[in-house]
Amino acid sequence: MLIAFNKPYGVLCQFTDAGRPPRPTLAGFGLPVGVYAAGRLDFDSEGLLLLTDDGALAHRLTDPRHKQPKTYRVQVEGDPGESQLQALRDGVQLNDGPTLPARARRIDPPDLWPRDPPVRFRKTVPDAWLELTIHEGRNRQVRRMTAAVGLPTLRLVRVAVGGHLLAGLLPGQWRERQATRKV
User: Which entry of 42, 44, 53, 54 is annotated as an active-site residue?
Assistant: First the structure.
């Protein structure tokens, strides 16, 4: 079984939380019993999270050797210049080593649901949207990449993993997907 889930902002990618106070988890969304997240999205990130009950499928989706592309819509602080976008395309140096090259382009503001709480707005600081596709999955990688080129991330929404798309799911909604042999 493969589930596509639109993880809301402020939800943990696990079914329990021992924190004090407890934070919202996947347990609150009526997901099928026995599935677990194939990969992660940070607490403060939104969008496509794949869940499965198939260990081999989870491995194909998450193992770096399979290099599944992950596509994000990223609201950044600042006005991205071509040199910043090219740096993302070339790969940037992070404290844990260089990243692989990414696809990066500026896009018009996407048609997304409102975030709760909303992203802070500052009249004196411009913001812009990027579409960024990476083939790795390091901890907070997209946020660290945009920060490394001088564009701090304000909002991060994953819209695709491999051939699996978020398309049409609102935050908290999920649908069963057809699991294919080759992901």
Answer: 42
